[in-house]
Design goal:
The protein has 149 residues and is an alpha/beta fold. It contains six helices and five strands. The protein has helices spanning 18-28, 42-53, 59-80, 95-106, 124-129, 137-147; strands at 6-12, 33-36, 83-87, 110-114, 132-134. A five-stranded parallel sheet has the order 2-1-3-4-5, sandwiched between helices. The radius of gyration is 16 Å and the shape is globular.
Length: 149
Amino acid sequence: MDKTLWTVYLAGEIHSDWRQNIMSLARQGDLPVTFLYPEQEHATSDTIGEVLLGKEISDFWYDHKSAKINTIRNQSFLNRSDIVVVRFGEKYRQWNAAFDAGQAVALGKHLITMHDPSLNHALKEIDARAMAVTETAEQIVGVLRHISR
């Protein structure tokens, strides 16, 4: 059987190296996967609106401009993906991650969630729509390996 090339969007928290772990394991396993992801530099993500479009005096518009520019990238990558992996971290509650998970489901994308078991209750509705609920990069890569056979 020919290998399918999967496009996987890695959404969610940007405060750890979870994406790099998944991509490294996938490369080591020679999986036929292309990864897409949002801006990884937190400061760049927060300031891009002001950097590109000028200074703002209101915090609302400062955040609004950056969010809209980031959404161009994030929405485009989410639309192009076959699978959306959403990582929920323990330290911050990522409203954007929950939004990405909802969009993925609405678009008919295959959703995989990744989070610590301590968040099972808080994320039960999102996890109920996921094709797999994982805790580790190894589990995600295991799913990708299985579907790529």
